[in-house]
C-alpha cells in the first residue's frame, strides 16, 4: 500500500512567504503528483508558476496591504474555465470548442491574490469515466468522483485548497474517500458562471481543505454576503428514518451509531425523524432522469457534431436524457422547491438544527470504476441545501466522512456547528 499524505493547512499559510509557498507547492507536486495524478499535465508548469508569482508581486507590492489569499495555491476542477488554461472536462472533444473565458468566481480569487496551481482531473463532463487519479491514502483505491483531482490534491498536501463542483455527490464523496473536508454551499449562493455544467438545477461549486478551520476562513472570503455566526447552544441533530438509512454498509452503520452515542454523551440531543420525501423517490430514478434530461439540453449542439467522441457512459446518459420531456423536467424543478420548504417545516416541527449522516455508504472501493454512491448525498443536493463532509474515522484503513446538512442559506451556521461537532467527536 502506497500512502502519499502531507499536512497542508490553509490557516497555517498566513505567515508563509510567497517564496516558501512556491517551494512547498513545486516540491510537493514534483514528489507526489507522478503517483497521485491529481492534475491535468501542464507543459512548462514551473515556468508558468513562477511567472504568475512575479505578476502577483507586481500587482501587490506592499506586503502590508496584500489580500487574504496572496500566493495561496488553488487547484481548479477542469470543468471551470481559467484564462490561460484549456478546458477539456475529462473528454475527447476539441478543447477549442469547450474552452471559454473564466467566470466571476475565478476572477474573484485572482483579485484576492490566489495563485492558480493548475487544473485538476475530472470524470468526463463530471458524469463518469475512468481517470488516472489515485487516492493518496492508498493508490489502489478510487479517490471518488467527479471532483477527484481536487480532493486528491488537497489530501496529498500539494495545495491547501481546491475547487470542485457537485451535481449529486461530486464534492462530498471524494472528500469522504480522501479524508479531507468537503463543503458544498447552498445552491446558487456562489455564482457558477464560467463553467461547463452537467445539470444546472443541481450544479453547485464546492471547496476542499484539510481542516474545518481552513474551510471557515476560505468560505468567509469566497461566499458572498458572509455573516459570522455564533451560538453557545449545542444544535439538536436530526437523523432521517426510513430508506435513507439503508444506503450504507453494516460497517458504516456501526460506526455512525457509535458516533451518535458519543455525541449524546457530549450533550447533543439526537432525534430520529420521518422525512418529508417518499422512499420511492430517493431510491428510484427520478433524480438521475432529471440530470440526464438537463445533460441532453447542455450537450445538444456538441453532441450533434461530436457524438463519436463521447465516452459510452456519457453518450448513454445523453441519449436517455433526450427522452425526458420538458414537462417532466419542470415537474422535478418544482419538486426541488417543494422539498426544500418541506424540509424546513420538518426541522421546525421537530426542533432540528442540523441533519447528520455518514457522507458515503462505504469507504473508497478498491479499483477505479466505482467513484461513490449518491444515496447519502443526492437528496440534499436536489433540495439545494448546504452540506459538508468532515474526516472523523477510518474503516479498514480508509477514511469515512461525517456529513452535516443545514437549511438553504445557513452556510455560516453549518460550518460553525460542524466545527463544534468535530471537536466533540475528536476529543472522545
UniProtKB/TrEMBL annotation:
> By its UniProt entry, which Pfam families does this protein fall under?
Amidase (PF01425)
- Quote the InterPro entries the UniProt record gives: Amidase, Amidase_dom, AS_sf
Q: Output one GO MF annotation.
A: catalytic activity
Question: Which intervals hold domain Amidase?
Answer: 24-415
Query: What is the designated name of this protein?
Result: Amidase
Amino acid at each position: 500500500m502506497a500512502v502519499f499524505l502531507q499536512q497542508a493547512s490553509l490557516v497555517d499559510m498566513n505567515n508563509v512567504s510567497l517564496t516558501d509557498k512556491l517551494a512547498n507547492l513545486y516540491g510537493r507536486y514534483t514528489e507526489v503528483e507522478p503517483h497521485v495524478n491529481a492534475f491535468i499535465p501542464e507543459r512548462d508548469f514551473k515556468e508558468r508558476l513562477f511567472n504568475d508569482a512575479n505578476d502577483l508581486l507586481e500587482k501587490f507590492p506592499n506586503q502590508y496591504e496584500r489580500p487574504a489569499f496572496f500566493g495561496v495555491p488553488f487547484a481548479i476542477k477542469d470543468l471551470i474555465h481559467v484564462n490561460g488554461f484549456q478546458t477539456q472536462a475529462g473528454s475527447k472533444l476539441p478543447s477549442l470548442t469547450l474552452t471559454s473565458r473564466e467566470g466571476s468566481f475565478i476572477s474573484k480569487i485572482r483579485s484576492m491574490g490566489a495563485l492558480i496551481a493548475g487544473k485538476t482531473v475530472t470524470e468526463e463532463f463530471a458524469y463518469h469515466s475512468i481517470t488516472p487519479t489515485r487516492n493518496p491514502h492508498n493508490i489502489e483505491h478510487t479517490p471518488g468522483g467527479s471532483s477527484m483531482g481536487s480532493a486528491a490534491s488537497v489530501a496529498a498536501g500539494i495545495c491547501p485548497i481546491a475547487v470542485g463542483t457537485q451535481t449529486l455527490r461530486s464534492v462530498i464523496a471524494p472528500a469522504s474517500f480522501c479524508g479531507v473536508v468537503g463543503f458544498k454551499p447552498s445552491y446558487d449562493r456562489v455564482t457558477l458562471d464560467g463553467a461547463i455544467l452537467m445539470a444546472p438545477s443541481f450544479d453547485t461549486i464546492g471547496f476542499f481543505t484539510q481542516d474545518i478551520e481552513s474551510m471557515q476562513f476560505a468560505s468567509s472570503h469566497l461566499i458572498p454576503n458572509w455573516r459570522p455566526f455564533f451560538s453557545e447552544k449545542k444544535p439538536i441533530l436530526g437523523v432521517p428514518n426510513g430508506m435513507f438509512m439503508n444506503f450504507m454498509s453494516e460497517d458504516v452503520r456501526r460506526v455512525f451509531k457509535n458516533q451518535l452515542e458519543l455525541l449524546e454523551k457530549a450533550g447533543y440531543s439526537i432525534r430520529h425523524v420521518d422525512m418529508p420525501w417518499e422512499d420511492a423517490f430517493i431510491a428510484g430514478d427520478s433524480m438521475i432522469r432529471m440530470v440526464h434530461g438537463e445533460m441532453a439540453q447542455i450537450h445538444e449542439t456538441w453532441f450533434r457534431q461530436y457524438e463519436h467522441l463521447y465516452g459510452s457512459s456519457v453518450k448513454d446518459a445523453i441519449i436517455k436524457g433526450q427522452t425526458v420531456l420538458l414537462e417532466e423536467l419542470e415537474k422535478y424543478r418544482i419538486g426541488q422547491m417543494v422539498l426544500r420548504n418541506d424540509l424546513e417545516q420538518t426541522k421546525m416541527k421537530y426542533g432540528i438544527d442540523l441533519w447528520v449522516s455518514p457522507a458515503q455508504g462505504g469507504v473508497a472501493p478498491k479499483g477505479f470504476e466505482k467513484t461513490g454512491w449518491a444515496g447519502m448525498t443526492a437528496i440534499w443536493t436536489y433540495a439545494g441545501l448546504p452540506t459538508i463532509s468532515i474526516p472523523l474515522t477510518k474503516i479498514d484503513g480508509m477514511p469515512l466522512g461525517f456529513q452535516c446538512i443545514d437549511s438553504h442559506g445557513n452556510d455560516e451556521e453549518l460550518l460553525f456547528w460542524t466545527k463544534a461537532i468535530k471537536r466533540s467527536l475528536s476529543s472522545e
